[in-house]
UniProtKB/TrEMBL annotation:
A single GO molecular function term of this UniProt record: protein-containing complex binding
GO annotation, cellular component aspect: mitochondrion
Residue intervals of the NAD-dependent epimerase/dehydratase domain: 4-81
Protein name: NAD-dependent epimerase/dehydratase domain-containing protein
InterPro entries named among the record's database cross-references: ComplexI_NDUFA9_subunit, Epimerase_deHydtase, NAD(P)-bd_dom_sf
One Pfam family named in its UniProt record: Epimerase
SUPFAM superfamilies: NAD(P)-binding Rossmann-fold domains
Domain of life: Eukaryota
Length: 264
């Protein structure tokens, strides 16, 4: 049974990568600072797959906190990133509509929470989108050399060219891509770079998550050829996991390719 380690496995996309991996028979480990299971705004479907994932604590900035989990891994995924510097917007973006007033009160009126003790680094583009990823890639490479194996390393990057997307975000993603593609040894690391545009969860509706409403606006922009169509996290996860078993699959996967039907 192949082993996959998903960094950010309880996040919006990460949880669907874990789910797809379980469905395809992989042994799945998630690493996040909290080590918590994911939250589901819509309880529509039973989530039995959650019990099949090993939900572990670890911090990307501290390789000692996760290196032992990488031993014996066939696949590693980095699904962590920030679109805006600072953390508060994530809670707003992922909260159910009904709890938005409380989240806005907490973030805007009371001020942000005390820093998480695991939060060792400021939440800048360079730290989260670039440095955390290159550090993980180098650690994966070290482990692969040690175990004389090749490990696939997937980095969730982003599509360039959508209006309102900060240039600093894209630059930090491209800097990480460059390191992963050009500074890792192909004998030990097989890089996969995914560049989705806007994503939303297909199980969540209008009242569950503001992303549903935003996806409709993005879809309208797509009709005018301005931006790529919004993608469901389930679609992106399926595209990613379907490539893991193919030793030839490597390099950049564009937003257009991610939108295509998944080959089983
Ligand atoms: N959302 C979109 O529409 C979109 C579009 C294009 C590209 N992307 C990219 O897709 C990726 C995933 O995005 P997302 O929206 O799924 O993110 P998300 O929901 O914010 O999830 C991020 C995850 O990272 C974990 N995390 C944060 N800091 C960590 C650290 N230092 N060490 C270990 N784990 C850490 C978080 O869990 P803890 O807080 O428990 O640590 C969380 O599980 C990102 O790279 C993002 O830039 C997203």
């Amino acid at each position: 049974m192949s082993k996959i380690v998903v960094f950010g496995g309880n996040g919006l996309l990460g949880k669907r990568i874990c789910q797809e991996s379980v469905n395809r028979g992989l042994k799945v480990y998630s690493i996040t600072r909290s080590g918590k299971t994911p939250t589901f705004n819509s309880p529509a479907k039973p989530n039995e797959w959650v019990d099949k994932v090993n939900w572990l604590k670890g911090d990307l900035f501290d390789p000692h906190s996760y290196k032992s989990v990488l031993m014996g891994a066939d696949h590693v995924v980095h699904s962590v990133g920030i679109l805006f510097e600072g953390a508060g917007y994530k809670k707003l973006a992922n909260a159910p509509i009904t709890s938005l007033p409380g989240v806005i009160w907490d973030e805007v009126c009371k001020g942000p929470e005390q820093p998480n003790p695991f939060e060792t680094e400021p939440l800048t583009y360079h730290n989260v989108n670039t440095r955390a990823a290159t550090l993980l890639c180098d650690t994966v490479s070290e482990v692969a050399k040690h175990t004389k194996s090749t490990i696939s390393f997937s980095y969730i990057s982003a599509h360039n060219g959508s209006p309102l997307i900060p240039q600093g975000y894209i630059d930090s993603k491209r800097a990480a891509e460059h390191h992963i593609l050009h500074h890792s040894d192909p004998e030990y690391v097989r890089p996969l770079i995914l560049r989705p545009g806007f994503m939303y969860d297909q199980e969540e509706g209008l009242l569950d998550n503001p992303r549903y409403a935003i996806s409709n606006v993005v879809g309208l922009g797509n009709c005018f050829g301005m931006i790529p169509a919004p993608l469901t996290t389930q679609q992106v996860a399926a595209q990613l996991v379907s490539r893991l078993g193919d030793p030839q699959a490597c390099g950049v996967v564009s937003a257009d390719e991610l939108a295509k039907p998944v080959l089983v």
